[in-house]
Amino acid sequence: MNTDFIKGIIPPIVTPVGPDEKPNEQVLRNHIDYMIAAGISGILAFGSNGEFYMLEEDEMESLLKIIVDQTGGRVPVYMGVGAIRTSKCIRLARLGQRLGARGVSVLQPMFIKPTEDELRDHFTAIARAVPEVPVLLYNNPGKTGYPISQTVVEDLAHRIPNLIGMKDSSGDLTETMEFIRRNRDVGFKVLVGKDTLIYPGLEVGAVGAVCSTANYMPELVCSVYDLFMAGKKREALEAQYRLNPVRLMMDKSSFPVATKDYGNLRGRDVGDPYLPNKSSPPAQMENLRQELIRAGLLDR
User: Fold this and answer.
1) What residues form DSSP beta bridges with 10?
2) Does domain 8-230 have CATH number 3.20.20.70?
């Protein structure tokens, strides 16, 4: 199975909506072109910052058709799967396969807390349902309440042929390093899931990063990866340092509204978050605006 395409900066694309919470197709198409022109290496549909938990399956189907069509093979599209029920995850993974997704990213189930055996069976069933599609785990303990353990990842990486990598959003560089070290003998690909850790992740063997910030400052985010790969590590680190304050200010907004707030401040017109989330209050919006100014991404 060819997995060479799994690398670089992959934004979890936001879902642009109008006042009626209906997806805005033209803004979505424009946003895809904007990010590709800035140098992204792929697009993750229905990631956390894509508000997947707000979308019905028919909405996912129509949105994925648009994303795949507008991308036009210029970069790979990944199908994000974040449902709790195994059968629904299988259905969504097969939807992604049918509509042309090059890979599937599977979040551990939220709200419930499966045992390691249950989690192994869950991921195994999903991967075996789409045997010709590369499957990546998505470890996000901050949002699900528990991590995918090193033991589970190592077992799956060595036993399931098409389970070929993961996005690690633990924010713990030791954990990321261990996912890489324990599975490098099978070519397991690890993507960093924290935008503030792109540079150190690459230093320890990650192949790229899934970055919400690439929705609104893709040129800066991609420069961290591109400079690093060109051997210009000092410049790459400086780009990372320029990125970090912008990303850290997002944590003062409720999740995940700051991604759309920043996008709108930079003229992307992606609309508001789905209710009950709301855009950041005025004082926080001004904080976000000031960080963009300090980073040289917005005029005063």
Assistant:
1) 210
2) yes
